Structures are given as C-alpha cells and as structure tokens.
Amino acid sequence: MNTLLTLDAVTKTFGSRTILDRVSLDVVDGESLAIVGPSGSGKSTLLNVIGLLDGPTSGEIRFSGTPLPRINSAAATLLRRDHINYLFQSFALISSATALENILIGMHAMRERRAAKIDRAMGLLERLGLLAVAQDRVVTLSGGERQRVALARCLLKPGELILADEPTGALDSAMAEIAITEMLTLHRDFGKTLLVVTHDARVARRCDRVYEIGTGITPGG
Fold first, then answer.
1. Of 64, 43, 93, nearest to 214 (Cα)?
2. What are phi and psi of 33, to 5 degrees?
3. Where does the ABC transporter domain lie (predicted)?
4. Cα 19 from Cα 12, distance rounded (Å)
5. Distance, CA of 213 to CA of 14 (rounded, Å)
6. 101 CB-contact burial (10 Å; exposed 0-12 / middle 13-18 / buried 19+)
7. Which residue from 106, 58, 103, 55 is spatially nearest to 84, judged by alpha carbons?
8. What CATH architecture applies to the domain 3-219?
9. pTM of the model
10. DSSP letters of 40-90?
C-alpha cells in the first residue's frame, strides 16, 4: 500500500491556544479515514491544514513524499487545483448555475473535449439519480440533491484526495444515510482517497479507519 499523505508532529496554535498538538498520521492511497473528536478539538483545522487552506505552526506534511508548499505560493495553488478536492457542509456550489455547469466548472482544467466532459458528467449524474435535474439551477435543488452534485464535482475534478468537512451535517437522517453510501462507494470506484471530518457515528463506523483527535487511530468498519 502506498502512503499518499504523511503528517509529522503537526502543530497549530492561535495566540496562546494550541489547536493541534504534534499530530502524526499516515494516510494510505485509496482509503477512507474518518476524523472524529469533540467540538473544538481541531478536526476542521486539521482538514484545513492538510488542504492548504491554512498553514501549520510547526511540523511537516508530505503529499506523495513531497513537503507541502507555503499556502500562499503558486505551487500551493497548483496542488489545490490538480490534486485536492473539497466537499463542504455548505456544498460551495454556484447557486445560479445548473447542476451540470457546476460539475463542468470543476473539470475546466482537464485537457479533454467539452463533449467528452459532458458525457462523463451526465453519466455520473444518472448514476446518482440526478439526470432529471442536470439542467436545473442549483438554487432550485433540495439539500440532498446539492450534496450529490457537490460529490459528483469532487469525483470528476482532477485530484486523488477528497477532504470532506461534515458532508452530511445539513441533511436529515434518511438522506444522510444515502449520502454516506454514495460517498463511500464512489470514492473507491473512482480511486480517490477520502478524509472526512464528522460527528456522525454512522459515517465513522463505515470508513476504513478512524482517527480520533488526541488519542490516535482505531480500526474502522
């Protein structure tokens, strides 16, 4: 098994507060890893540091063996564009654009004919039960539909790592269960590595492994 991501004694402080305290962690290529812990324990901060949305105070993070660049560098911009995808609780979609357009925006850097991109996007929308709303603006979609559009964008956008921050937090119980199944099935089918911050025990239980902030890794599944 290849290691995609390595964290070595990563620490993050804000003023006098230590949010992350010497976190060390290896993430295997293709696995799903749930990051859990009480509110305020630094789960989202850890995801932001890994995703180059914030920088660590000390320690090192390596992506495929190479140390991550500074967050405001051109190299960081390229790494975020080409290798890292984000799935937020708010979905971060363009409300005035259609479901299909939101997915195509994520694919814009790919060297592929537009017609081929559309074919792939429509195929995934069909698999997710969204074919009928492909041309509907996101503002008209339900929360569950938006979550699936955001997932489709992550899967088709270039990048082997998906960082998901409470991706089921805005969904009701029934829709959250559907979203969990789709997310965990499709990340494997598309060869993506999934890191998911969650307070939902159902999500954590179904991931390959669980990392609990402050205690370490326990077996998942």
1. 43
2. -130, 120
3. 5-217
4. 6
5. 17
6. middle
7. 106
8. 3-Layer(aba) Sandwich (3.40)
9. 0.92
10. TSSHHHHHHHHTTSS--SEEEEEETTEEPPPTTSHHHHHHHHHHEEEEETT
